[in-house]
Amino acid sequence: MKKIVLAAVVSMLSLQVQAAQDPEAVYARACAACHNGQLPMAPKRGDKAAWEPRLAKGMDVLVQNVTNGLNAMPPRGLCMDCSAEDYQAVIELMAE
């Protein structure tokens, strides 16, 4: 049941996001280095089990974590020209 609700929330959020940049391009240049499996503590793209507890905290918290940095992730997650909407779109992409 939680997974169904979580999927519905992510789907609804994706309808509201108006990212200025292409999420795939941002992922490729700024996120993939860590989120493709190189760093074990970074949730891997497409790993629904790893993303589920993070998404449960809410998108605002996740965007704030990227903006401020968290653990090994530097502030702004290596995307210095990303907006909050860009971060949200990339998080949604990685969590799919």
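The above is record 1. Record 2 follows with the same two-line structure.
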Amino acid sequence: MIVCHCKNITDHEIHAAIDWMRASDPETIISPGKIYHALGKSADCGGCMPLFLDTMRGNDNLSVPNNLRNLRSGTHREISHEGRSEGHRVSQQGTPS
């Protein structure tokens, strides 16, 4: 079945790319972008993304490797203001005189 009409990608190609990536690197995180790259293509309009993701989820090799699961369950460090200083927004800097 054709999943992406813009780039002519089939469900068989998606499954083959996932299987190939998992076989070559068992610890890799597989994303749609990596699948497009493995197929030598790039995303176009994005209209296929829901079906693309459903096709990916249907592959048993998509799961996250056990040693990479629950990495966030340890200590949680909160970063405020995305690393910027306190008054980084215009509304927090006051009005000009």
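The CA atoms of residues 26 and 70 lie 17 Å apart.
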